[in-house]
Amino acid sequence: MNDRFFSAGAAQRTRLLSEGKSGKGPAVYWMSREQRARDNWGLLAAQEAASEPGRGLVVLFCFSPSFSSASSRHYSFLEGGLRETAAILEGYNIPLLFLYGDPGEKIPEACRLLDAALLVTDFDPYPEKRPWKKNAAASSVCPVFETDGHNIIPAWIVSPKKEFSAATFRRKAAPLLDEWLLDFPRLEPLPAVPPVPEGLFLSLDRALKSVRRKAYGPAISWIKPGESAASEGLSFFIRNRLDSYGDRRNNPAENGTSDLSPWLHFGHLSPQRAALEVKKTGDTPSRAAFLEELCVRRELADNFCHYREDAGTYEGIPDWARKTLDEHRADTRPARYPLNRLESCDTGDPLWNAAQTELVMRGKMHGWCRMYWAKKILEWSDSPEEAFSTALLLNDRYSLDGQDPNGIAGVSWAVGGLHDRGWPERPVFGKIRYMNYRGAERKFPVRQYIEKINRISDGE
Ligand code: FAD
Questions:
Q1: Which residues, 6 or more positions from 373, have their beta carbon under 8 angstroms from its beta carbon?
Q2: pLDDT score of 32
Q3: Ligand 1: distance of its center to the CA of 302 in Å?
């Protein structure tokens, strides 16, 4: 079925979700996780299918009324990116049309209205979005495909099962990487599609007006949304931080990491593009360290969410971790803080308060602090289940890159030992890896980090 519509590059990354009858209308690409015009395998796949005379291509984006933790800062970032992408697509005669409602219903409805030849959408194992695609595929009349534009090696190809650890995933991914890490074909202008039927489709402003947004934390200005800003961000990182990434990335007092995660999360930047550009600059331990995070740790998180139905819940953490946490359920906690104290950065631990302040004020916490932050929540919560849901809630509510498989894997690792091994047993944590303030002081200048964050919250 793939060969009927797609040529090699995109076909390799695309799989059939449901068969159906092709209509006489355009090819349709349902943009969801990959919100960009450039370097987008799903869009490229749909373009190939659209190249048949008279077909054309339409892109849809559907706003769901219920997307649990998304707040104003997420919608502002999303909006900025979509405005830029719509303008770029217009130059290729590809309209970007907006819908509001349950994507599982609205997308098939739009495809019927357009008499779509086929529907292509993004692979996305984030649990809250899985039913959208399942329902859309089940009720579409036309054939439905999904393309993995987020993983360099498609998640269903790199491994057929949930991987045990980064090491087992790396063993499978490493030998395939060169074969898959190839440059992208160009998006080509297409013949214009006839005017689309009115009614169902909304302007971006109208769709956004329908979305209920809650404000958590101030608006974010240190990072700009959109594919151009993402591309500049990648160049900035390569020029200024990549050489020292290996040495500086675990020091929260410095700005040593790439800060690419918000763009990667919203799909403004293709991970494959980031890996290609970094690879072009040579082969050093710093580059290897960055590619390990980008290509192994990030894709391992997708592997977990793809193969575990219960990813994102406490039940999704390994059995050994649940057993050990259960055995320490009754242990005395050194302190207990309810959600409101945590959310307002009000604990007895100045490092934790600074990390939470960074999350609230900046919409992104340093990667090292994220581990410490979540482990402290485990130490201070009445139960491990509560710790798991509190950490995920705060992460997703405030972090620009939240509501992502990486967040699920990160919290499952810190609180629930996912992809980790057992460590010497201790109170509350059982065999889950432990982190404490003194250990942090041995790693980096904690006071310097706290002062840096105080300056951010003072508006510097
Ligand atoms: P860099 O160090 O520059 O890394 C480059 C890219 O590699 C990142 O953008 C990311 O895509 C990937 N990466 C780096 N570290 C990891 C990791 N440990 N796991 C998976 N991918 C990684 N990441 C998110 O994208 N969204 C989240 O909501 C999120 N929540 C987390 C919660 C906890 C408790 C923990 C422990 C980790 C979480 N992470 C999350 C993973 C990681 O901390 C962030 O990806 C990283 O801090 C992003 O900053 P950066 O782009 O500057 O990272």
A1: 352, 355, 356, 359, 365, 391
A2: 97
A3: 12
Task: Please tell me the distance from the alpha carbon of residue 38 to that of residue 58, in angstroms, as a whole number.
Answer: 16
Report the pLDDT value the prediction gives residue 263, as an integer from 0 to 100: 98
pLDDT value of residue 2: 58
Nearest to 428 by CA among 343, 337, 333, 358: 333
Which residues in the chain show pLDDT less than 70?
Answer: 1-4, 7-8, 459-460
The residue to mutate among 243, 269, 401, 432, having the most atoms of ligand 1 within 8 angstroms of its beta carbon, is 401
How many other C-beta atoms can be found within 10 angstroms of the C-beta atom of residue 177? 17
Report pLDDT for 3.
59
Residue 293 DSSP one-character state: I
Pocket of ligand 1 (CB under 6 A): 249, 257-261, 264-265, 293-294, 297-298, 301, 367, 370-371, 374, 395, 399, 401-402, 404, 406-407, 409-411, 413-414
Query: Within 10 A of 276 (CB to CB), how many other CB atoms are there?
Result: 16
Phi and psi (nearest 5°) for 294?
Answer: -70, -40
* The length of the chain, given as a count of residues: 460
Atom 6 of ligand 1, residue of closest alpha carbon = 294
Identify which of 77, 254, 290, 293 to mutate to test ligand 1's pocket (most ligand atoms within 8 A of the CB). Answer: 293
> Using CA atoms, how far apart are residues 50 and 37, in angstroms rounded to an integer?
15
Structure confidence by residue, pLDDT tens digits, 269-316: 999 999 999 999 999 999 999 999 999 999 999 999 999 999 999 999
